[in-house]
């Protein structure tokens, strides 16, 4: 970041007054940089580093800083003081490496997993800046006292497997170390691993808390607001009023002293669900404690961004294809596949394709979704009738327009008038979109069917629905149609009224539904320290657990794990000393994607977890012929005192008993191996929006 000339900093008596311990930008700032980028060398960002926690392979091309007002289109390499002296080319912190390998950044080929470290550095720097800003200190009192971070709370999606959770924890720890070292608060070359080493810091190092998932935290916001604001702290009356009369209480449980709450959280990248049973102890009045018990949690990596892709593929691209055909393009489908399909290459065209998705298709898709969200649900003829140009707030850059226009001009018959993409008409009936969603033609339908089925099975008292996509009339209609609880027991959190205690309230309502996860995490932390007056909550009992129960080979066409493809059953990655059955081995006839599901139900959606690939060309030829490879897996890190961390290859052999070398096969974590994506890039990052 450029805050001014360095000699102004020196005049203040500090040579580091303008130091910013981060090289990335997030949120709206990052979106603006991506939307106006003019360079075509290498990548300058990704949609979400959480999608790529599994990818620790160095990038093939150097990362670049996105420049909006640069004098040339050649963008500078993504290196800047002070972080360039604290990590290597791959993005690994130098303090973790042996002394002889501690080389600073020369070619920024950071792995996409380490971009999570960079993002957390930026968020951490912003948090430090905010709590110590003049305005904050004046508003909260004691303006002369500097503030320090005491605790960092990270809420996790239910869909995040244990393997990714551990990588996330490591990235947060690395970000903390890098920021502290960049600010000069910890010796640059000293290790940061143990509490004793962290005590060398001039500024105390905050504790990291990562035990709570987003769906459970959202529930606590509702629970606290109802108990304190609507029932004046009378928790017994609150539970008694909302308990379903048609659900039989469990043996030994007094009717009206338990509440079963489910929540569905549809974000941008994951759809999460949690079902929690809240039990009151035998206290009375305000002296009563709520004990939560997590009954079921599940998450799927299908959410708002996939809904956006569906809108682009069902509405925007067909309109463009029809306009091209009317203009005289003989094979419009082939042209769109060339421009916006998945070529699998990494070149200038791939970068232009990604910029086209960011600057043209995503703004059009968001405009459609925004109009659908604001439409009158009682009007059967409600729709959107506009041109591409009407819906675009900002026109794409000249590079993107040239990329599209040159290909279209080449495909048009000679003598044809110039094709104007901004005049392409977009005619959409929202009732047809809703019918398609209810009929299962959107990818979001399958996970919503699954979570609603589970909620219905548990006979929940209340269902909380949160996340921006849940504001869409079609999504609300689908949830009401599935009716996991009676409709009057569904709480839509975007319209939910909160009182003045809620930090992000907008005119008495939650406003941004994603803020419930952060506020819920704050309430959990305060409850642990008994700092919530008139509300006693046992927050320590809500902990994440692994949802990997059945592991096997996923189908190539859809993310399903059929019973005959399951390798291992009843896996428990939370049990110390857990092992896999060493007698089991499985035939392999090519590269496969291994995935998991939680339930013994072949209809339950599965999630990709690993890619098992063959590295040896000689072994590949053998298998391509008549050979069959047998493989066996085992768990790593399992001991009497600790639960296993991940799966690894145990051994492999051919059908004639010939052992296969360990380096001939690779079992690599990959949670993005999906038919809608290239297996290594999400559609926002590849720009591949056209599927044949």
Task: Write up this protein.
It is a single chain. This protein is α+β, with helices and mostly antiparallel strands and 692 residues long. It has four domains: 6-209, no CATH class; 214-300 and 486-541, no CATH class; 305-437, no CATH class; 550-686, no CATH class. Helix content is 32%, strand content 15%. The strands form five sheets. A six-stranded mixed sheet has the order 9-8-3-4-5-10, with helices on both faces. α14 (430-438) runs parallel beside α16. The protein is globular and about 85 Å long.
Poorly predicted ranges = none
C-alpha Rg, in Å?
A: 27 Å
Q: Count up the helices.
A: 19
The secondary structure category is alpha+beta
Protein name: Virulence factor SrfB
InterPro entries: ATPase_NBD (IPR043129), Virulence_factor_SrfB (IPR009216)
Pfam families: SrfB
Concise summary:
The protein is about 30% helix and about 15% strand. It has a six-stranded mixed beta sheet, sandwiched between helices.
What keyword list fits this structure?
692 residues, 18 strands, globular, alpha+beta
Set out the fold topology.
Layout: H1 6-11, H2 27-35, H3 115-131, H4 134-140, E1 151-153, H5 162-182, H6 195-198, E2 207-209, H7 214-230, H8 235-242, E3 258-266, E4 271-280, E5 289-300, H9 304-327, H10 332-340, H11 348-373, E6 383-387, H12 388-391, H13 398-411, E7 425-429, H14 430-438, H15 445-457, E8 462-466, H16 473-482, E9 490-492, H17 515-528, E10 536-537, E11 550-553, E12 566-568, E13 586-588, E14 592-597, E15 607-614, H18 617-624, E16 629-636, E17 646-654, E18 665-669, H19 683-686
Parallel strand pairs: 1-2, 3-8, 5-10, 8-9
Antiparallel strand pairs: 3-4, 4-5, 6-7, 11-12, 11-14, 13-16, 14-15, 15-18, 16-17
Helix pairs in contact: 3-5, 7-17, 9-11, 11-13, 14-16
């Amino acid at each position: 970041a450029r805050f001014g000339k360095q000699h102004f900093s020196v005049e203040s008596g500090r040579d580091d007054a303008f130091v910013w311990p981060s090289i990335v930008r997030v949120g709206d700032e990052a979106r603006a940089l991506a939307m106006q980028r003019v360079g075509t060398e290498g990548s300058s960002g990704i949609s979400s580093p959480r999608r790529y926690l599994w990818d620790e392979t160095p990038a093939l091309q150097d990362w670049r800083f996105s420049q909006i007002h640069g004098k040339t289109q050649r963008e500078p390499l993504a290196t800047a003081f002070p972080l360039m002296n604290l990590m290597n080319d791959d993005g690994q912190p130098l303090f973790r490496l042996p002394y002889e390998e501690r080389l600073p950044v020369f070619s920024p080929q950071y792995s996409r997993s380490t971009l999570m470290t960079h993002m957390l550095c930026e968020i951490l720097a912003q948090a430090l800046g905010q709590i110590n800003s003049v305005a904050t200190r004046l508003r909260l009192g004691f303006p002369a006292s500097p503030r320090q971070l005491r605790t960092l709370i990270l809420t996790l999606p239910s869909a995040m497997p244990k393997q990714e959770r551990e990588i996330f924890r490591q990235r947060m720890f690395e970000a903390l170390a890098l920021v502290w070292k960049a600010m000069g608060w910890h010796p640059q070359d000293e290790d940061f691993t143990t509490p004793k080493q962290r005590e060398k810091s001039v500024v105390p190092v905050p504790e990291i808390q990562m035990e709570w998932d987003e769906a459970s935290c959202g529930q606590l916001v509702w629970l606290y607001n109802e108990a304190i604001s609507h029932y004046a702290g009378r928790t017994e009356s609150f539970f008694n009023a909302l308990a379903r009369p048609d659900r039989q209480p469990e043996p030994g449980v007094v009717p009206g002293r338990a509440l079963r709450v489910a929540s569905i959280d549809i974000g941008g990248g994951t759809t999460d669900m949690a079902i929690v049973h809240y039990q009151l102890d035998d206290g009375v009045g305000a002296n009563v404690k709520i004990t939560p018990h997590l009954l079921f949690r599940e998450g799927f990596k299908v959410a708002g961004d996939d809904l956006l892709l569906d809108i682009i593929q069902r509405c925007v691209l067909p309109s463009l294809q029809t306009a091209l055909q009317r203009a005289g393009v003989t094979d419009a489908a082939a042209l769109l596949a060339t421009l916006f399909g998945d070529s699998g290459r990494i070149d200038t065209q791939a970068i232009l394709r990604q910029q086209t998705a960011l600057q043209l298709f995503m703004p059009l898709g968001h405009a459609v979704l925004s109009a659908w969200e604001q439409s009158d649900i009682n009007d059967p003829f409600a729709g959107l009738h506009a041109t591409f140009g009407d819906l675009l707030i900002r026109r794409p850059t000249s590079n993107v327009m040239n990329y599209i226009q040159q290909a279209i001009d080449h495909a048009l018959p000679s003598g044809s008038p110039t094709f104007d993409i901004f005049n392409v008409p977009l005619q959409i009936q929202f009732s047809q979109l809703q019918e398609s969603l209810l009929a299962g033609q959107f990818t979001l339908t399958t996970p919503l069917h699954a979570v609603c089925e589970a909620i219905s099975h548990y006979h929940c008292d209340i269902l909380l629905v949160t996340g921006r996509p849940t504001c869409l009339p079609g999504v609300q209609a689908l949830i009401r149609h599935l009716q996991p609880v009676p409709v009057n027991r569904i709480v839509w959190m975007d319209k939910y009224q909160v009182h003045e205690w809620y930090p992000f309230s907008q005119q008495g309502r939650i406003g941004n539904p994603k803020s419930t996860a952060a506020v819920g995490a704050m309430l959990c932390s305060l409850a642990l320290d008994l700092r919530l007056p008139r509300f006693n909550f046992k927050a320590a009992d809500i902990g994440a657990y692994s949802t990997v129960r059945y592991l096997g080979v996923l189908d190539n066409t859809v993310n399903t794990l059929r019973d005959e493809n399951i390798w291992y059953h009843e896996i428990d990655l939370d049990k110390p000393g857990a092992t896999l059955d060493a007698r089991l081995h499985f035939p392999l006839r090519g590269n496969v994607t291994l995935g998991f599901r939680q339930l013994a139900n072949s209809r339950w959606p599965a999630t990709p977890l690993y890619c098992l690939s063959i590295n040896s060309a000689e072994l590949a030829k053998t298998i391509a012929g008549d050979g069959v490879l047998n493989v066996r897996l085992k768990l790593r890190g399992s001991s009497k005192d600790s639960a296993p961390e991940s799966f690894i290859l145990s051994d492999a052999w051919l059908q004639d008993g010939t052992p296969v070398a360990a380096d001939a096969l690779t079992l690599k974590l990959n949670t993005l191996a999906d038919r809608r994506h290239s297996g290594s890039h999400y559609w926002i990052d590849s720009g591949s929006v056209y599927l044949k």
